[in-house]
Design brief:
heterodimer; A: 827 residues; mainly alpha; Cytochrome C Oxidase, Chain A; Four Helix Bundle (Hemerythrin (Met), subunit A); 2 domains; two-stranded antiparallel sheet; two-stranded antiparallel ribbon; globular; B: two-stranded antiparallel sheet
């Protein structure tokens, strides 16, 4: 088959629907990545306009520009949009677009999930945008501290928009994180062992693991605060056994890692771009990987440094102060590795490199002020002043926006296949750099003079007027610079001339394809032998187009790729993807209906939406059915590989394992909250403990074990006889017993709205009940699958997946029942 | 996947130890353990120091373990990275939990 015929055949197989209809049914990572990036930069624009309004207000004392109610919404939405609707989705979009190309594969692990995540982001972001336009936007600051945001002090719908909208958007981040973990570890080109992975993939892997463990505490906090606001369960009300500090712990358990979740992908961009711009390779690849991993872990030991003024004992403060200073070390290792890379190479000052230099200056300054506020006595002085606002902007703008601008200009030739024509970008960089430092250097100064953050006005006598005016004027210079970048990129898309492939002479695989990339990425999958395969083999792109790699024969008209063993990169099995579908947008819309019913408090709609979610979820998985055994398939280069449905560890198993890691973090955070309230909150021990019940405990524990054992019987039954219904029936019975026990616990809790103890037990029971329902649904699904003949001793992949969820249910049920009954027994 | 776990294990042990000691500190202060003394030494302080010591020993043991032929990775890159991170875990444990030896417990 000629290269042109192969291209046409693969395009027909992989392409999205033509025209605007394709936006709604595409599951292709290139399309969805572009949609993510376009949407996230739209939100960057909105967040930037809000920043201009804030600076307009603060430019002069006693400004009449905006009243306090509007101003509160402005700064809350500015922070919320920039953090949740710009920074994280930009990482998601960039990684969705780039990762399969860099890893030498054709798509991410779960293309439909990619699209579902995008639509959740789109609808959730739309919800927040609507609140802004309607004047009912969240107004409690981007970290939403109760009691200010509780039902007493914020009775309107504003706070609910934040709690529900952000939780909706976070589904997108969790989906992307699961997808990236599985894709990076399993969906790589043959031969790409861990030490040959592109450095950006390492950073994306570390960031994704952080999202899976960092976001669940915030989701939990949002759920608890919304439940308190809607139903009166008092998790954060001190007079009823709650504690507002619990919110701060849950929020910052997410919030501090969030800073690194934003920075690390940008560091991945820097580690990718600097060696190319300096005509060399990254200095200390292994050290950079180790530093990224160390940074990720240390970032989870810093959260209390946002709470230094809350009265925590000195020893507790010292733990977190020490960890906060230590985190500078792995950051420094990376910065020195980048400087060393520039030193050993021959730097060329192209536009991406200008933004990298902007990053160095800005981020290092932000890092140094970070070490200042990590020291407790200094933090006590600077806390809640504009100094902290300036510090965080140095870290986030320096550590994210400059690298992302570098990324835009670096990968623009790949996105468009064109070469830059107008040179607006260089002037824009100058304006951005000068404008940024003018804005935020001044803000450090005014903060040290005592200006608190989030004030809507100040007296002329305070002596802050000139500094604020300088800051505001500079911010408009910054805005003009960013607007010029937007204009430059738009002009590039419209009028720039065709460019040549790989204009930077980079070595990574995304440059071994035509630009703009075809829907299938690679006509045949490369065999990777070095870290820079394109540099090692300049003719690689041509050879892949000729079909000299894996999976070169599109004869069966299927969307195919292959997976590898994570460590060595040895091919393991083939994956056949589903095609274009509108299921993701429908699924996201129904998920949105669920959140909307909670937001507008139309609770009769909630169970209908849940039933809709279950129905679409069922359809989603059902469509993956494989009616007959396929056996090993031709994979090219004379090799045959099994298909994923005929293995024990299919992609669904890996995805479930990573999703359960996030789920377990959510559960762990709930248990932490229970322990925290018990030890720290006023009003504990509670006036009345749950009466222990041997029957409830016995039924629950037995049910949990039977559910888990039943799944193992089912796996064995399917392996030996091609069925497994008996084992599944046993497992379903066990699941029902576990559900009964936790439902009984929820009913017996005296008064969930009366004390935080009862409220916590009620939520613990609800969590276990939800998982019982989920496991029951999966087991029922599998029974139907078996009876319809969609399983066999070969087609066995779904059994271990359901077993994993049943095991998790068993663990959760046992822990919930034990922690609920233990205080009663001990008393 | 074992190689990925080898890379992650030492920082995970640090995170568990750090959270565990912080939790122990919170529980001890909440229940007044700092006031229980034996031979003029606070038993709470002894418990915190013991927890720190155990965490340091565990981190120390990971360094030769991850570098050994039996438990270490066969891939040189993974072996080097996991041993480097074991050193990071040790230093982090020593530095971030040092306050148990030098700070007042519950003031």
């Amino acid at each position: 088959m000629s290269a042109l015929r192969r291209h046409r055949r693969l395009t027909a197989i992989w392409a999205s629907e033509p025209g605007w209809k394709g936006w709604f049914s595409t599951v292709n990572h290139t399309d969805v990545g572009r949609m993510f990036l376009a949407t996230s930069f739209f939100f960057f624009l909105v967040g930037g306009i809000l920043a201009m309004l804030i600076r307009a207000q603060l430019a002069t004392p006693h400004s009449a520009f905006a009243g306090p109610e509007v101003y509160n919404q402005l700064f809350t939405m500015h922070g919320t949009i920039m953090m949740f609707l710009f920074a994280i989705p930009t990482f998601e979009g960039l990684a969705i677009y780039l990762l399969p190309k860099m890893l030498g594969t054709r798509d991410l692990a779960y293309p439909r999930l990619t699209a579902y995540g995008y639509w959740c982001y789109f609808f959730g972001g739309g919800m927040l945008l609507f609140s802004l336009l309607a004047g009912i936007a969240p107004d409690g600051g981007w970290f939403m501290y109760p009691p200010l945001t509780g039902p007493i002090y914020s009775p309107g719908i504003n706070t609910d928009f934040w709690l529900i909208g952000i939780t909706f958007v976070e589904i997108s981040a969790i989906c992307a994180a699961v997808e990236f973990c599985v894709s990076i570890l399993r969906y790589r080109a043959p031969g790409m062992s861990l030490d040959k992975m592109p450095i950006f993939a390492w950073y994306a892997l570390v960031t994704s693991l952080m999202i899976l463990t960092g976001f669940p505490p915030l989701i939990l906090g949002s759920v608890l605060l919304e439940v308190e606001r809607a139903f009166g369960l008092p998790f954060f009300q001190a007079e009823l056994g709650g504690d507002s500090l619990l919110w701060q712990h849950l929020f910052w358990l997410f919030g501090h890692p969030e800073v690194y979740i934003i920075f690390l992908p940008a560091a991945g961009v820097i580690s990718t771009v600097i060696p190319v711009m300096c005509r060399t390779t990254l200095l200390g690849y292994g050290w950079v990987v180790a530093a990224a991993v160390a940074l990720a872990f240390l970032s989870f030991g810093l959260w209390v440094h946002h709470m230094f003024t809350t009265g925590i004992p000195h020893m507790g403060l010292a733990f977190f102060s020490a960890a906060s200073t230590l985190v500078a070390v792995p950051t420094g290792v990376q910065v020195f590795a980048w400087i060393g890379t520039m030193w050993k190479g021959r730097p060329e000052l192209h536009l991406p490199m200008l933004h990298i230099l902007g990053f160095f200056v800005t981020f290092v300054m932000g890092g140094l002020t970070g070490v200042m506020v990590a020291i407790v006595p200094f933090d006590w002085q600077a806390h809640d002043t504009a100094f902290v606002t300036a510090h965080l902007h140095y870290v986030l703008f320096g550590g994210f926006v400059f690298p992302i601008l570098a990324a835009i200009y670096y990968w623009l030739p790949l996105f468009t296949g064109r070469t830059r024509f107008f040179k607006l970008g260089e002037l824009a960089f100058g304006l951005i750099f000068v404008g940024f430092h003018g804005t935020f250097l001044a803000m450090h100064w005014v903060g040290l003079l005592g200006q608190r953050r989030r004030i809507e006005t100040y007296d002329a006598e305070a002596g802050w007027t000139t500094i604020n005016l300088v800051s505001s004027v500079s911010s408009f210079v910054l805005a003009i610079g960013l607007a010029m970048v937007l204009l430059d990129v738009l002009l590039h898309f419209v009028v720039a001339v065709r460019g040549r492939r790989n204009p930077w002479h980079a070595g990574s695989l995304e440059w071994a394809m035509p630009a703009p990339p075809p829907a299938y990425n690679f006509a045949s999958l490369p065999v990777v032998e070095t870290r820079d395969p394109v540099s090692s083999d300049p003719h690689l792109a041509v050879r892949l187009a000729r079909g000299e790699g894996w999976l070169a024969d599109p004869a069966l008209d299927r969307r195919e790729t292959l997976t590898v063993e994570p460590s060595s990169g040895t091919p393991e099995y083939m994956v056949i993807y589903p095609g274009n579908t509108r299921l993701p947008i429908v699924f996201a819309a129904i998920t949105g209906l669920f959140f909307l019913s909670l937001l507008i408090k139309v609770y009769w709609l909630t169970p209908i939406a849940l039933a809709g979610i279950a129905t679409v979820g069922w359809r989603w998985v059902w469509s993956l059915a494989q009616p007959v055994d396929l056996g090993p398939q031709e994979a090219g280069r004379g090799e045959r590989l099994p298909v994923s449905g005929e293995t024990d560890r299919a992609p669904g198993w890996w995805g479930s394992a990573f999703l359960l890691a996030a789920d377990a973090t959510f559960f762990g955070s709930l248990l932490f909250g229970y322990a925290f309230l018990w030890t720290v909150a006023p009003g504990w021990p509670p006036p009345e403990l749950l009466e222990p019940s041997l029957l409830e405990l016995g039924v629950g524990l037995a049910g949990a074990l039977v559910a888990s054992i039943g799944m193992r019987i089912a796996i064995r039954g399917n392996r030996s006889r091609g069925t497994g219904v008996a084992g599944l029936a046993v497992a379903l019975t066990g699941t029902a017993a576990a559900a009964l026990a936790v439902a009984s616990l929820m009913i017996r809790v005296p008064a969930p709205a009366g004390h935080a103890y009862d409220a916590t037990l009620f939520v613990l029971g609800g969590y276990a009940l939800f998982h019982a329902a989920l496991a029951g649904l999966m087991q029922t699904f599998l029974i139907v699958r078996v009876r319809r003949g969609f399983t066999s001793p070969a087609r066995r992949a779904e059994f271990p997946i359901v077993c994993l969820w049943a095991d998790y249910l068993a663990l959760v049920t046992i822990l919930v029942l034990v922690v609920a009954h233990l205080p009663g027994w001990l008393a | 996947m074992t190689d990925v776990l080898r890379i992650l294990v030492a920082p995970l042990v640090w995170l568990a130890a750090f959270s565990g000691v912080y939790g122990l500190h919170g529980v001890g202060c909440a229940f007044g353990w700092a006031d229980v003394e034996l031979l003029s030494i606070s038993l709470f302080r002894v418990a915190l120091l013991a927890a720190w010591g155990a965490a340091v020993l565990l981190q120390l043991s990971l360094i030769p373990t991850l570098g050994s032929n039996r438990f270490g990775s066969a891939a040189p890159f993974v072996r080097r990275t996991s041993v480097a991170l074991a050193w990071v875990g040790l230093v982090a444990t020593l530095w971030t939990l040092l306050p148990v030896a030098v700070m007042s417990a519950c003031d």
